Amino acid sequence: FKIFEDGVEQKIESFAAEETPFAAVILLDTSGSMESRVSIARSAAIKFLEGLRIDDNAAIYHFHSKVELVQDFSNSRDIVERIFDLKADGMTVLNDAVFKASELLAVRKEKRRAIIVLSDGADTMSKKSQDKALKAANAAGAMIYTIDMSSPDATLKEKAQNQSALKSFAEKTGGTFIAAPGGDGMRDAFKRIVEEL
Question: What is the pLDDT of residues 3-42, one digit of tens each?
Fold first, then answer.
């Protein structure tokens, strides 16, 4: 490739990949529809924290009828006890959760920013539209990684509908959509995300 500045070709002295710190917000869906899969989502979040480097920071939020903090930004691999008390209950505010995560990341000093969503993709109660949530994520420069945790019992129609929202978040922010029906392959998915970030 060639680089031009104001129409003038520039000589490339060196070209290298560099590892820069990242900030991530993990969003755990703890709505009623996730009842049998909350513990799988929780262990995947713990796996993600294990992959943090010294300068990386991650926060954990869970969402059901509202979005709530579990653990604030930190580069600790230790996880707060509260995460083990999370129970599936209520409706789903996926768009609101993505919007909130985007707001949090917009003020972070790290240049690489990511939102990791573990959900079955069904949004039943958000005040914000998906479009608003996407705009906020793009404004914050955050890539969204979505992990589909649909129930293995969901109908094909339900799965397609829910996956469509998760795929859209990932595709429109430069992130990745990962299907992990019933939570299978979650550990590998999280390892891949950490490596990519």
Answer: 999 999 999 888 887 788 999 999 999 999 898 888 888 8
- Per residue in 85-119, pLDDT tens? 899 999 999 999 999 999 999 999 999 999 999 99
Residue found under tokens 């070709």? 9
Other Cβ atoms within 10 Å of 4 Cβ, number:
8
Q: Could you report how far apart the first and last alpha carbons of the chain are, in Å?
A: 24
DSSP class per residue in the chain: --EEETTEEE-----------EEEEEEEE-SGGGGGGHHHHHHHHHHHHHT--TT-EEEEEEESSSEEEEEEEE--S---GGGGG----S---HHHHHHHHHHHHHT-S-SEEEEEEEE-----S-SS-HHHHHHHHHHTTEEEEEEE---TTS-HHHHHHHHHHHHHHHHTTT--EEE-GGGTTHHHHHHHHHHH-
